[in-house]
Amino acid sequence: MKRHSRLLVVCVALLSTMKPVCADTIYFTNKGTGSIWSFTWTPSTSGTVTPTLVASGIQSPSGMAVGSDGNLYVTETGSNKAGAITRINPSDRVASRVVDLPGTNPAGIAFLPGGGNMIVSSLEPSDDAQGTVLFSISGWSGTSASAAPYSSYALTGGAAVATTSAGTLFVSNNPGYNGDVLSFTSGTAAPATLIASGSAVNQTAAPTGLLVDGSTLYSLSITDARVMKTDLSLLTTGSLTTLAPYSYPSTLASLSDGRLLVGTANYSGQFFVVNPLDGNSTSFFVSGFPQVGGIVAVPEPAALSLTVIGLASVGWLVRRRHSSFSR
User: Fold this and answer.
1) What is 24-313's CATH number, 2.102.10.10, 3.40.50.300, 2.120.10.30, 3.40.430.10?
2) What gap in Å lies between CA 68 and CA 98, rounded to an integer?
3) Structure pTM?
4) How far is the C-alpha of 120 from the C-alpha of 123, rounded, in Å?
5) Cα–Cα distance for residue pair 275/193, rounded to 1 Å
């Protein structure tokens, strides 16, 4: 019996030292070739990664987000500002049109909490009388989606959008080589300036990607290659890190190990992995020289699988030991 107990202690100790391997499936849009690609990321990813084609024939795909139905939703711009939203099933890779947004150049995309409406931003005011930049899209998970203005406030161009669990909406108001980050508490409220345009450490130059993680908003300042960090509880902003010159960071996502993945728009296929605590970063490349417009990181169930395998191993050893005592 003592040997039995010692065996259990050893098995549990071994299991406790096993560390789950973080892994994410990364989807990204390639604006230059009108396609969606994927690859698997782990903390050991380095060098050059070869991606897998998910969908093609999409007109200048830009922003991308995952809906509560598990599908990918992509902002698409055709010729003559014939904007649209496209749904892609990541399992069978079938693409279908969700809604047309004529007269727009859609870029940012996010979802209001609780399976609410999809919010889409256009890079420039549409041709309607209101000059709409932000759209609220209902029925997006079905076959009869419809779009309406989210706000009548005269934005000059929405490069990206993000939402909090409480429903606050953030917009990269980016008309070119300047711009600011605005926040909305509702579609009827006037926006507040969260991050002002400028070159100081607490200001942004041409804001692009946005990401909300708890009470923190991360944003990208594309012209000076900075990653910004805003404490939403204190409403304070500072520069987290500065990436390589001329990398043109365009979009970002949260990885399963807590770090940030930043995509670039300079046709190099370079991705940066940034530690949100100290700003330290590493990088790797994706072959094909994509111009990355949007990225999504979907965690793989590696940690769960490891736990199940470990527990199953302990059970097998215990049963085997118990059988030896019975004989």
Assistant:
1) 2.120.10.30
2) 15
3) 0.86
4) 10
5) 26
Domain boundaries, the chain: 24-313
Q: What is the pLDDT of residues 115-148, one digit of tens each?
A: 899 999 998 765 554 567 899 999 999 889 999 9
* Segment 77-93, tens digit of pLDDT: 877 788 999 999 999 99
> Which strand ranges, in their side-by-side order, compose the sheet holding 134-138?
106-111, 118-122, 134-138, 146-149
As a whole number of Å, the CA-based R_g of the chain is 23
Helices (H) and strands (E) in the chain, counts: 2, 25
**Strand pairing partners for 77?**
83
Dump the DSSP string for 104-144. Answer: --EEEEEE-TTT--EEEEESS--SSTT---EEEEESTTSS-
Tokens (6 digits) for 321 = 């030991």
